[in-house]
Amino acid sequence: QVQLVESGGGLVQPGGSLRLSCAASGSIFSIGTMGWYRQAPGNQRELVADITATGSTNYADFVKGRFTISRDNTNNTVHLQMNSLKPEDTAVYYCQMSVVRRRSYGFLKEDYWGQGTQVTVSS
Fold it and tell me: Residue 28's Cα: distance from chain center in Å?
């Protein structure tokens, strides 16, 4: 099994910063793309940013220039540095990883999700 544990959410004033982290543990052979998604009340879950195994990044237009995604392959961790936060960034943030596990018959690739961490931007 694989577990993803997130940390770093909280309450911050507009213009402030937060850093989210997500660590994977368990029976892991390798990890492909890692990403961060968010879901605000009444909205669908949406992609914030993702990063491939080779370090290529992709950002939603609404966070470009403000958020930075990074990964630590040694520790199976992904981070999201969020700067210049706005009230509209308020949401539950979820990490997602594409994990490859070794099985008796070969390799299995599955997507795993973290439990979510609340980010609230308010004065």
Answer: 18
Cα separation of the two ends of the chain: 40
Which residues lie across from 82 on neighbouring strands?
18, 67
Angle (nearest 5°) at CA 73 between 121 and 2: 80
Rg (CA), the chain: 15
Give the whole-angstrom CA distance, residue 97 versus residue 104.
22
Q: Are 22 and 32 in contact (CB under 8 A)?
A: no
Comparing C-alpha atoms, which of 118, 110, 119 is closest to residue 3?
Answer: 110
pLDDT at 83 over 90: yes
What is the chain's mean pLDDT, rounded?
97
Please report where in the chains the tokens 């968010």 appear, as a residue: 38
| DSSP characters over 6-70 | EE--EEE-TT--EEEEEEEEES-SEEEEEEEEEE-TTS--EEEEEE-TT--EEE-GGGTTTEEEE
Q: What is the distance between the alpha carbons of residues 81 and 98, in angstroms, rounded to a whole number?
A: 21
Question: Which residues on adjacent β-strands are paired with residue 10?
Answer: 119
